[in-house]
């Protein structure tokens, strides 16, 4: 009997270890897939800019970069939740005054809360209704952005951009208006599938269109000689290809029979709840986005502004690339937390937060150690200036600290989205960056004359305040009340 009991216990232990190993493997696969998807979609815009840069004159690159920057901060940034990826896409936008006018960002962030919790609660029809309500909201926002894009040239001139470059940038942006609608719908579909932990089709529907985009951009720009217009048209066409591929998969796959019941007028009832979550989600990310852009503008006021501005832009881009690791974990913890809250499994939700936070910080530390040993090589990819290389070496220790803090706050921001705390995160970002970070950055840079290092030290203070505040909110969370509130709301949901 004892032998049988020991054997049974050993077998259960092996089964438990196998289950845990499979769960960890699935989590890693999810994270890697999300990072790949995100980078692929943003690389679509980058490739078009790169093609225009080889048209034979630097002015073409300037036109495309300005147009791309304008499209990012006034359009595409409305519709996604990760501003860090935008900083990877076009570091040059940090040097443009138009970077400070981005009014909203992260319009699709509400679906992470709504769809994630509904899926965990097995209210499957709600996912389809929330998706439709988000599509309606995104379409309305896209119309407004399209109108704004029609006035790109006069607005850029108002911001004292070069007239010739502004004119070309306006045409570059105008050709992307059709793609803006596809991109907005695409973001909604991504969140809808992501909250169900469906990522493989997303990888296929991002990588395949990206390969098509490279060929299409070459055809339109180099073969047909359409220049900037061809590069922009390639962006629109690629986004529509990806959107239609993903939509066809959702409609034709039997996997979503329960979550997608077809178009319904009931979706209009949930437009307001979607907007209520999307607005603070947009503000939450936009405040952080502006803080990084504001640093670059302030750097232009420092002595030797050419070096200072280039250095801060390099640091911002490096921070953004490091954040792409965290981005996957942020999406994973948002999905897991919202699912577990919806299912009432508060212990699993808390465990997911703990494990994801530790893993993300560990990988961030690994990244900064790599940066510490290879910062000269990395900086050499941006500039050959001895002065910039020397300054980058001096600011690297500060940047290592900010990357680790950014990694922690990224995961905690994902927890906030999963729990539906976007409003708390928005207030946190306002206080952390604009009442703590930016004032200290100005004080350190100008009063204490630490210059660029002072600016980044101020940013670190803001990130510290942000991360600590979000951590405190997370630690003091009454998880059981979140689950109870979800259960109480089931009666109001459409079954």
Automatic annotation (TrEMBL):
It is found in: Membrane. It is a multi-pass membrane protein. Belongs to the multi antimicrobial extrusion (MATE) (TC 2.A.66.1) family. This is Protein DETOXIFICATION. InterPro entries: MATE_euk, MATE_fam. It comes from the Eukaryota. CDD domains: MATE_eukaryotic. It comes from Eleusine coracana subsp. coracana. Pfam families: MatE (PF01554). One of its GO terms (biological process) is xenobiotic detoxification by transmembrane export across the plasma membrane. The keyword Transmembrane applies. The gene is ga25190. GO terms for molecular function: antiporter activity; xenobiotic transmembrane transporter activity. Keywords: Membrane, Transmembrane, Transmembrane helix. The chain crosses the membrane at residues 28-51, 127-149, 169-190, 202-221, 227-250, 270-291, 311-334, 355-372, 378-405, 426-448, 454-475. One of its GO terms (cellular component) is membrane. The lineage of its organism: Eukaryota, Viridiplantae, Streptophyta, Embryophyta, Tracheophyta.
């Amino acid at each position: 009997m004892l032998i049988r009991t020991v054997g049974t216990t050993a077998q259960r232990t092996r089964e438990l270890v196998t289950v845990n190993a499979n769960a960890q493997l699935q989590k890693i696969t999810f994270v890697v897939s999300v990072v790949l998807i995100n980078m692929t979609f943003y690389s679509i815009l980058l490739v078009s800019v790169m093609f225009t840069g080889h048209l034979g004159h630097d002015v073409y690159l300037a036109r495309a970069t300005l147009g791309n920057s304008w499209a990012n901060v006034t359009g595409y940034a409305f519709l996604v939740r990760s501003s860090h990826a935008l900083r990877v896409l076009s570091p040059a936008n940090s040097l443009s005054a138009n970077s400070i006018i981005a009014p909203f960002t992260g319009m699709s962030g509400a679906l992470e809360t709504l769809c994630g919790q509904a899926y965990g609660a097995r209210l499957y029809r709600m996912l389809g209704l929330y998706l439709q309500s988000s599509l309606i909201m995104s379409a309305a926002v896209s119309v407004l952005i399209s109108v704004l894009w029609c006035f790109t040239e006069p607005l850029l001139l108002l911001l004292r951009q070069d007239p010739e470059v502004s004119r070309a940038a306006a045409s570059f942006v105008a050709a992307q208006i059709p793609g803006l609608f596809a991109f907005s719908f695409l973001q909604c579909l991504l969140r809808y599938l992501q909250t169900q932990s469906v990522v493989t089709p997303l990888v296929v529907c991002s990588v395949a269109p990206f390969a098509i985009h490279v060929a299409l951009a070459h055809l339109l720009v180099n073969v047909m000689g359409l220049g900037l217009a061809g590069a922009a048209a390639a962006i629109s066409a690629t986004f529509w290809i990806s959107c239609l591929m993903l939509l066809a998969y959702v409609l034709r796959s039997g996997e979503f029979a329960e979550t997608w019941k077809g178009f319904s007028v009931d979706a209009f009832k949930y437009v307001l709840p979607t907007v209520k979550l999307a607005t603070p989600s947009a503000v939450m990310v936009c405040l952080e986005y502006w803080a990084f852009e504001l640093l670059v503008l302030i750097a232009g006021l420092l002595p030797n502004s050419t070096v200072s501005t280039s250095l801060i832009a390099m640091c911002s881009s490096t921070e953004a690339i490091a954040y792409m690791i965290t981005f996957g974990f942020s999406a994973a913890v948002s999905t897991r937390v919202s699912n577990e809250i919806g299912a009432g499994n508060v212990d699993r939700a808390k465990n997911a937060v703990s494990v994801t936070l530790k893993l993300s910080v560990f990988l961030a530390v690994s990244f900064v150690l790599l940066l510490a040993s290879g910062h000269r090589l990395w900086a050499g990819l941006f500039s050959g200036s001895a002065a910039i290389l020397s300054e980058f070496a001096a600011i690297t220790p500060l940047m290592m600290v900010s990357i680790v803090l950014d990694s922690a706050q990224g995961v905690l921001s994902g927890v906030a989205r999963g729990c539906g705390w976007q409003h708390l995160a928005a207030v946190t970002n306002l206080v952390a960056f604009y009442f703590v970070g930016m004032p200290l950055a100005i004080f350190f840079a100008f009063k204490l004359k630490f210059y660029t290092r002072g600016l980044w030290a101020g940013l670190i203070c803001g990130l510290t305040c942000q991360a600590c505040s979000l951590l405190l909110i997370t630690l003091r969370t009454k998880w059981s009340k979140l689950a109870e509130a979800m259960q109480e709301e089931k009666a109001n949901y459409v079954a």
